[in-house]
UniProtKB/TrEMBL annotation:
<feature type="domain" description="GH18">
    <location>
        <begin position="1"/>
        <end position="106"/>
    </location>
</feature>
<keyword id="KW-0119">Carbohydrate metabolism</keyword>
<dbReference type="GO" id="GO:0005975">
    <property type="term" value="P:carbohydrate metabolic process"/>
</dbReference>
<feature type="region of interest" description="Disordered">
    <location>
        <begin position="1"/>
        <end position="20"/>
    </location>
</feature>
<dbReference type="InterPro" id="IPR001223">
    <property type="entry name" value="Glyco_hydro18_cat"/>
</dbReference>
<dbReference type="InterPro" id="IPR017853">
    <property type="entry name" value="GH"/>
</dbReference>
<keyword id="KW-0624">Polysaccharide degradation</keyword>
<dbReference type="InterPro" id="IPR029070">
    <property type="entry name" value="Chitinase_insertion_sf"/>
</dbReference>
<feature type="region of interest" description="Disordered">
    <location>
        <begin position="109"/>
        <end position="141"/>
    </location>
</feature>
<keyword id="KW-0146">Chitin degradation</keyword>
<dbReference type="InterPro" id="IPR050314">
    <property type="entry name" value="Glycosyl_Hydrlase_18"/>
</dbReference>
<dbReference type="GO" id="GO:0006032">
    <property type="term" value="P:chitin catabolic process"/>
</dbReference>
<protein>
    <recommendedName>
        <fullName>chitinase</fullName>
        <ecNumber>3.2.1.14</ecNumber>
    </recommendedName>
</protein>
<dbReference type="GO" id="GO:0008843">
    <property type="term" value="F:endochitinase activity"/>
</dbReference>
<dbReference type="Pfam" id="PF00704">
    <property type="entry name" value="Glyco_hydro_18"/>
</dbReference>
């Protein structure tokens, strides 16, 4: 998250800013950094990733659409794997499921973006509280 973005040009992308040291969780992004709170979602087509901007604060992150794009790249380039930041910050499992679906060759379904805000009382407190997902086999061509 970058604050004090000096220009609204290009939706805040590539503008001078101050690093905040704050990294919101994916759950926080869904609940706090949304249109209701003045943030607009943009898509960086070069990076194939979303970002949020409210005129002064810029947040880059991964979402289901960007993870499908990463999976497509992995399959197209016949790579051995993918990563995203930050798996442990998504207690819903939405991001991992999107990556797994993409690695299976499934198409991106935009309605996957329509998520309900997670119940804060059920959020895991440590990485040990997260469930371990099943391994996904990726066919290598």
């Amino acid at each position: 998250m970058w604050t004090d973005v000096t220009s609204k040009e290009n939706g805040g992308l590539g503008q001078p800013a101050t690093g905040s040291g704050n990294t919101p969780t994916y759950n926080d992004i869904l609940v706090k950094y949304n249109a209701a709170n003045g943030y607009k979602r943009y898509w960086d087509d070069a990076a194939k990733a979303p970002y949020l901007f409210n005129g002064s604060t810029f947040i880059s992150y991964d979402d289901p659409q960007s993870l499908y794009e990463k999976a497509k790249y992995v399959l197209d380039k016949k790579l051995g794997g993918a990563m995203f930041w930050e798996y442990s910050n998504d207690s819903t499992g939405t991001l991992l499921n999107a990556l797994a679906d993409g690695l299976k060759g499934n198409s991106y379904e935009p309605e996957i973006q329509a998520l309900e805000a997670p119940d804060a009382s059920n959020e895991p407190q440590t990485n040990e509280d997260l469930e371990t997902p099943e391994a996904v086999e990726v066919p290598v061509q």
